[in-house]
Amino acid sequence: MGISEIKISASMACADFTCLERDIRQLEEAGVCMLHFDVVDGSFADTFIMGPPIIQSLRPFTKLIFDVHLMIYNPAKFIKQFVEVGSDYICFHLEACDNPVEVAEKIKSSGIKAALALCPETPAEKVKEELLHLVDMVLVLTVHPGYAGQPFISYTLDKIKKLYSLKEKMGLLDLDIAADGNINPKTIPSVVKAGANVLVGGSSGLFVKGKSIKECAKAMFDAAYNALEEKKNEGK
Fold first, then answer.
1. Residues annotated as catalytic (active site), given as ranges
2. How far apart are CA 214 and CA 9, in angstroms?
């Protein structure tokens, strides 16, 4: 099928900020491999979230991958800051810059991985092949940027399918496709069948009130691998 290994990423904006070290330990034990940091400047989206000091303060506590999602305009201006605090990926928005190829090249030249993010309304056709060759991951927002708790936008599934088809056509076997926004055991089957392999869990996925992180992560993994098995059987 060509779908890469399922990876669960934790949306740290939804974690308990009074116990971040505790939550990170529990995420590690649950098999989560990435920590997803939303950085919002109040302009690209109508809120403020996180920044370099938070990322820097958490870096010594874990070897998990730090995926920093910049929801800011002119992302190239801030790459150096986020590299210096320990980012492993910098994810920037296609809608937030004039020359995305240049931004991706600048991230890669800093020695870390580049990821491209797309808002729900941005079509897959906007992503040029030259850019896909440069980035290591494409992040499809399945809700509007900036706020947790929004309903899943079903039309984003078609975009994931198109990106997956393009990935296959171009032979980009290592390119990850991520889905972010109300990703939970109910929405995971359709997202995984569409072609996403990185699942960003937030308030409805990993940090669910009344449930442990371990329990939530297991439910996400189970939903993902069951969906892969169903897709495999459907293809027979």
1. 38, 180
2. 13
